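request received
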Amino acid sequence: MSSPTVRLPRYRSALFAPANQLEVLKKLPRSRPDLAILDLEDAVPDSAEAKQQARQVAREAQVWLAAHHPEQAVYLRLNAVQSPYFADDLDALTPTLAGVVLPKLERAADLAEAVEQFGARGLAHLQIMAGLETVAGVENAGELLQGPGKGPSKGPSKGAVKGAVTSAYFGAEDYVADLGGVRTAAGLEVLYPRSRVAMLARLFGVAAYDIVVTKLRDDAAFLEDARVGRSLGYGGKLCIHPAQVALSHQVFSPSPEEIKRAW
Amino acid sequence: MSSPTVRLPRYRSALFAPANQLEVLKKLPRSRPDLAILDLEDAVPDSAEAKQQARQVAREAQVWLAAHHPEQAVYLRLNAVQSPYFADDLDALTPTLAGVVLPKLERAADLAEAVEQFGARGLAHLQIMAGLETVAGVENAGELLQGPGKGPSKGPSKGAVKGAVTSAYFGAEDYVADLGGVRTAAGLEVLYPRSRVAMLARLFGVAAYDIVVTKLRDDAAFLEDARVGRSLGYGGKLCIHPAQVALSHQVFSPSPEEIKRAW
Amino acid sequence: MSSPTVRLPRYRSALFAPANQLEVLKKLPRSRPDLAILDLEDAVPDSAEAKQQARQVAREAQVWLAAHHPEQAVYLRLNAVQSPYFADDLDALTPTLAGVVLPKLERAADLAEAVEQFGARGLAHLQIMAGLETVAGVENAGELLQGPGKGPSKGPSKGAVKGAVTSAYFGAEDYVADLGGVRTAAGLEVLYPRSRVAMLARLFGVAAYDIVVTKLRDDAAFLEDARVGRSLGYGGKLCIHPAQVALSHQVFSPSPEEIKRAW
Ligand SMILES: [Mg+2]
Ligand SMILES: [Mg+2]
Ligand SMILES: [Mg+2]
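response:
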């Protein structure tokens, strides 16, 4: 009721593509995702050479997308702030970006460092999507997502950058790997963290993206999982295949009845 | 084990009726609910005129019920403390009431204000049922429910009125609306908040009422949902139809075996 | 990711036996549990005489097991720190023990007292398994399990003994009894606390043992429950019958594929 009602215009789908594949990146707008994400993290091999090559491709893709698809919102997913790649990843940022994704975000201090680095490069306008996909990230989600004056009446959190984060996602695969658990089809092993992240996102007025569905070419499974995500309060889904975008929009677009009711 | 074992005598059912319908209010005791609640909030249209008319009817009903059914415990559900109706709702309180319901309670400061207002009117004896049915209310449930010296060893909470709350309910419909989620038959979207509220109620020795079943005339569905609530630690259910009272008592009354075991 | 990756060598099974039955205690190693626990708490009748007799048997068993099965890790489960039996239970500790189990642990102050008592008796080397099986124990799990410098950036917790706890279990039967709930076959009533304890154990680098399966002679039910526990991040199970040990190992031993993947 008195929760913040700030809602991003549309965040039904965020489609990832590997930041080292220029031709794939250029095609991102084709499926009309609400957000396109060039991925320097999981989609690029874990080596200094691969990351460096991907940064150059990512810069080129950003310029090309801004020129040919100015209507497409584009984010860049950096490697984790606490990773050895982060500092150099900053060189891949161009002013055409709408925002960045900080994967495996765990501590307010890391968020503060990222914000400081963006500011130092004249990129203070970047929106930040927090990737909550480790045990520590979920446990600290409250302080990572809270904005100025929006939180419950708790003590001041040290090092948090109030209002820095505008969206977040819960990453089930990485979370369960970090937990030492096992992913199942029913997904009960992530019901608690998945519920909690959506709830805190809502509490702090942050847009929440639901988990990736790794099984491709199974529309029914995707739709079912998206409906679960929507029931839990998520507003959209992370997508890893263009075909998942339309499916996401099918689930997360408000129905005519819902639109009518809102008026 | 060392949790407080204070248990209200009986709180298997709390039956609501619209505070603006005198004849319905007079019939509240017929189904023998453990608690009858005259509702100035959701059951009364959202306009100053409707609320004002309901306040007068509610006063009349309180007097009538006290005279004709002195054995019936009666609460009045006010509008939310943070709503524009709350101040005038206080005029609807009479000394015959056993307690009040504070819906959509979210902050300790609002609880403190309500307690102060009751005290200023010589109504400090009123029991308070906290309606936890928003994202903020669930997140802040700990400080809203805690009593003096009962809580875990955390810092002092500012503005909390220790021990003011004697019962609470979790409201799934309003919670999910506030969350931006979707209610489902299986109810997994509320398993986390529903579990957490019951757990905190137990931790702080507060009686916990389970969610409303909105589907009427489906006894099997009500019984199944009540059994889930009981498994989670709830001691009774909010009821919105007289027929739900007997069903609640069926589920929440201890069996002869349980009574024997307790001795 | 940056969660501590300390993992005890093996903790797939912890087999309990009543501390007052010498012949049963001597047989504990036969089923080759990763851990054997002599139980002074639930398995021994709740009387001063029964507890005293069990303490003497437990001492004798410890010496016998150390002599005949030096390879077997042995813990002693004391009665709860806050119980009247705890002080005398300390006399049952011998230097042959690898550790102790503190059941129904709820407060950091109780943990600190236990640690102090062990130190005063020259038993500071004892590993501590925290039994989280009450509402207060689950709610305070964070401060009970956290180690030095490992926790999220919260304020200092008063009275906590940093790093004292090396393992923990969630006890569903006692938890639900304390909650005032009902245990069901599906177990959704404990999904939240069971999830939360495993998550916090992982956050603080503590080995986590999953709930007891009370139904004996039903291998399929045990295996199914163990798989749920493993999906939630538990590394092993509490066992109350020797036949449950092999079943636990079946579920919690890494598969050849998992071992290969880890390299
Ligand atoms: Mg990842
Ligand atoms: Mg309502
Ligand atoms: Mg027990």
